[in-house]
Automatic annotation (TrEMBL):
Every VOC domain range: 4-114
Name used for this protein in its record: VOC family protein
Pfam families noted in UniProt: Glyoxalase (PF00903)
Length: 123
């Protein structure tokens, strides 16, 4: 039985550079740091960086949105740290705001401000 999402893995062929960027974005060092994989704990979930994963060739495919309290502020911070605009912040209904950026390594990073979502761990 599924217990919920746990890990999102981004390709990181330049692992040291990608790790440094996400350390700055997340404001914390990784909890797991090896030459073959780097893992960050983010609000009970994991962002994994894999130097051997196939690099993103296009922004198509599964898209992960990371929850933020203020989509516009998070979007502006990501851009100031070197991300590129993929889709600017937009309201998608009922107070939910989303945006996507391309990190400096070509991965699509989604953010979502959702006042209706309340994290409930599965027991």
């Amino acid at each position: 039985m599924f217990q919920g999402l746990r890990t999102v893995i981004y390709p990181a062929p330049r692992l040291a550079e990608v790790k440094a960027w996400y350390t700055q974005v997340l404001g914390q060092p990784p909890y797991f740091d090896e030459p073959y994989y780097v893992g960050f704990s983010v609000g009970g979930f994991e962002l994994g960086l894999d130097p051997d994963a196939a690099p993103a060739t296009s922004p198509a495919g599964p898209l992960t949105y990371w929850g933020v309290p203020d989509a516009q502020a998070a979007f502006e911070r990501l851009i100031s740290l070197g991300a590129q605009v993929h889709q600017a912040v937009q309201e998608v209904g009922e107070g939910i705001r989303v945006a996507t950026v391309l990190d400096p390594f070509g991965n699509v990073l989604g953010i979502i401000e959702n006042p209706h979502f309340k994290f409930q761990p599965v027991s």
